[in-house]
Every structure is written in C-alpha cells, then in structure tokens.
Amino acid sequence: xxxxxxxxxxxxxxxxxxxxxxxxxxxxxxxxxxxxxxxxxxxxxxxxxxxxxxxxxxxxxxxxxxxxxxxxxxxxxxxxxxxxxxxxxxxxxxxxxxxxxxxxxxxxxxxxxxxxxxxxxxxxxxxxxxxxxxxxxxxxxx
Length: 142
What we know:
The protein has helices at residues 20-30, 54-67, 83-99, 101-106; strands at residues 75-80, 107-110, 119-122, 130-136. It has four helices and four strands, in the order ααβααβββ. A hairpin with an 8-residue loop joins β2 (107-110) and β3. α2 packs across α3. It is globular and about 40 Å long.
C-alpha cells in the first residue's frame, strides 16, 4: 500500500498513507490469524461517513488482495447496489495502478463497454492470473 498514491481531490498524487483509524481497520482485517494460518475474517463490513476516503481505502485493499496477497489465481470482487457505485472504487484502483510504475508493469487493465465486467488482470512471471472485478445487485437479477 505504501507505493500507492491518492487519485483525487487535494490529496491527488500524494502517497497513500494510512491514518491511525484506517491502519487499525487493516490490522483487524489482516493481522489476526487462526491457528491454521488463515485469516480470522474472510468477510468485512466497514461503514464510514461521506468524504472520509472510502473509495481510496477500498481500492487499496482490493489491490492488496489482488496483487500483494500471494494467492494463486485470486479473485477479488467489489460489490455495490448499482453500476455507478460499483465502478467508483474500481476506477480509483485503476488510477492507482496507472500512478504506480511498479504496478503498471505488472497489471493489465481490461475495460469493456459493460462496466460490470470490467476487470484488472495481473499476470506475474509465474503466469497465474489474478482478477479484480466489479459486481452489482442488478447483475444478479433478471
């Protein structure tokens, strides 16, 4: 996460540094392991007020899980009630990749007309494929 940059507002282009309460969230999610070595939590619900950096934090976490977690063929999904909401954090993640030279070399951005199927693919030297996708409630209803 240290190599990422903020993508919008007055923080745009500045290093993405976690503030204390964000760091505590990350520690709670990723720092507690079960005796078998797996994380204690595999689902997390975080609620934050407007203008507190939800999209930037969500994008950074999604990129960490997609590119920095070491899981082969990892799939990370960002879900929301509608297409516009689903694309907000994804678009931030795309911009974070574009602003980070190291990630830009490793990640291929595949954009499509159908936003719910837009994804990032990381193809590292070992040829495993990791995917970050957006999904909406309307994607799963007829």
